[in-house]
Amino acid sequence: MADVLVTHSYHLPYDRKQVRKMQPYPPLGTLYAAAVLRQGGASVAVFDPMLAEPLSGFREALERHRPVLVAIYEDDFNFLTKMCLTRMRHLAWEMIAEAKRFGTRVVAHGSDASDHADEYLQHGSEWVLLGESEFKLLELFRQISVGRESADDIPGVISRWSNRVNAIEIGGKPAVVRRSSAFPLPARDLIDLTAYRNAWKAAHGMFSLNLVASRGCPYHCNWCAKPIFGDTYWSRDPADVASEMAELHREYQAEHLWFADDIFAINPHWIELFAREVRDRNCAIPYKIQARADRLTAATAAALKRSGCAEVWMGVESGSQTVLDAMEKDLRIDEIVGARENLRQQQIRACYFLQFGYPGESWGDLQKTIALVRDTKPDDIGISFSYPLPTTRFYERVREQLGEKQNWSDSEDLCVMFQGAYSDNFYRVVRDALHAEVEELNGRAGPAGPTSRELWKQVALLEPMSRNENPTALDSKHHSRAPVIPSRQPFIPLGDVSGRNRVT
């Protein structure tokens, strides 16, 4: 028996790309919510569908725990949930239906629920929690326990009994809990980590776990959705983070860690203190992070190395300063180059997140991205297509171009949902070619599949015939639309991928 059954709707086998990567992490945000409930006196169970069969497993959990309340509380620290993937949305609605058939009340929280609250209410959720919501969930449970229904007095809660607009206006902007000491550690003991360990060991020969040192991001990239934390940012005490690292290694035999922060290493002083705390506890184990290139100074890179950092993923996005400025990224190309060199000096893997297809990106801009990759030789890259997420300024600018499909079904469903300069197929071939070249540069290319040289030849042939008619550009200063004339710049030749005689 349990008062609250906490779950989420991300099922890894429904996401083709993530199945191939096979790097599953426990639902950290979901486990934080369970921990806050338990700390507040509720009896709590967790059903984790990440690797388990979702619907039959959920039914079994309902039968076993007979909860008063089901909380479909998505992992706010999993970037995949921010993408509002339709397959996972439909699973959430199926879980709501199962809970309602069982006679259990349901509350939903997450990026997708925040963006589509009306739809979640229509599918049976009685409440939707907006913003940072662990303590809102605890308060909601307490009110349900004494027979209250609407919860309109809890800021950032929308209920089926309230007019949606009034509920938001009455509650005001969802408050953010700024005291990191208010949060217990995630309730990892409420799920079975064996399946995660087995998956990691089979695919990679080691076991990785996740944690966070901070919440939110203070930067303002116009394509980035922030439905949970908004523009707020706060970090935990460095000593607490180092202690959690030590616990994950000692109690769960983690051999590697993933800091799931939106942005890590933002404060040089914090990083220095963190490195000292890790040293004092002798708990340095390899970890990876996401960070901004302009924060990765030589001193910060050295402190990261001392604390165990092995890999940094930077939001590079583009090698074109014009595109970065249109994104309102507040980042310069020379800062990317400098960060890559600082990480190289510390023997930390430097990896780039890249975007293709941002409005106004020409063939010449794409070639600058290719050239940046060739010049700086990152250890790995991840390529996505520009994705207009609700609540972002980018979404509002292209809203009139969107059709019926406004979300990807899974994270491999790469398509440009507005009028891009080129066809989806062209961007996919460029993606495959650049991935292949990076794999070859780093000695990871396998015998199967076409070489990067063969793929670049396809790119050169496809470019003239893949241009869309009447693509649009967005002027980042005035937010106006203007026609784009794709660049007729000749394709950059591949050169020798060994680096001895490369043409850039």
Please characterize this protein's 3D structure.
The protein has 19 helices and 16 strands. A hairpin with a 6-residue loop joins strand 15 (472-474) and strand 16 (481-483). The longest helix has 18 residues, at 424-441. With 504 residues, the protein is of the alpha/beta class. It folds into 2 domains: 4-176, Rossmann fold, CATH 3.40.50; 206-483, tm_1862 like domain (pyruvate-formate lyase- activating enzyme), CATH 3.80.30.20. The strands form 4 sheets. It has a 6-stranded mixed β-sheet, with helices on both faces. Strands 7-10-11-12-13-14 form a 6-stranded parallel β-sheet. Helix content is 39%, strand content 14%.
Quote the CATH topology of the largest domain: pyruvate-formate lyase- activating enzyme
CATH architecture of the largest domain: Alpha-Beta Horseshoe
Biggest sheet descriptor: 6 strands, mixed
**Unreliable stretches:** 165-174, 478-488, 495-504
Order of strands across the biggest sheet? 2-1-3-4-5-6
What is the level 1 CATH name of the largest domain? Alpha Beta
Question: What structural class do you assign from the helix and strand content?
Answer: alpha/beta
Number of strands: 16
Using only C-alpha atoms, the radius of gyration works out to 23 Å
Span between N and C termini? 64 Å
**CATH homologous superfamily classification of the largest domain:** tm_1862 like domain
Overall pLDDT confidence: 87
Report the portion of residues in β strands.
Answer: 5-15%
Quick gist of this model?
The protein is α/β, with parallel strands linked by helices. The protein is built from 19 helices and 16 strands.
